[in-house]
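#onboarding

Welcome to the new folks! Below is a worked example of what a typical request in this channel looks like: someone posts a single protein sequence, and someone else replies with the predicted structure as tokens. Don't worry about understanding the tokens yet, we'll cover that in week two.

Example request:
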Amino acid sequence: MKLHRYEDTATFPFGHLLVRDMVPEGLEGLSIAEIEAPIGAENPPYAAASADKVYVGITGDIEFRSGQETARVRRGDVLVVRAGETYSYHNGGYEMGRLLLLQIPPEAGS
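Example response:
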């Protein structure tokens, strides 16, 4: 068993977002990150070919788009974006948005 302390993990900017990425030792294909999305922040269209992504809403109201589909992720909601799917998201709400992101390599999801 190995504990990774949240407060020991440095943040880094990613566009208008702030990301805190924790990759457990021995699970380099898996990525766990907290994303802070200030009001008005936007993540432009992107397609991650190498991993499925699972977003969990912590705070705020984040709007995700993929093609003609729209989903609003709020506290406790879980959104799955499959590898290769193009999507974007935007915080059009009235408070800081926070998401937990798990990136799962294809071999782990099969």
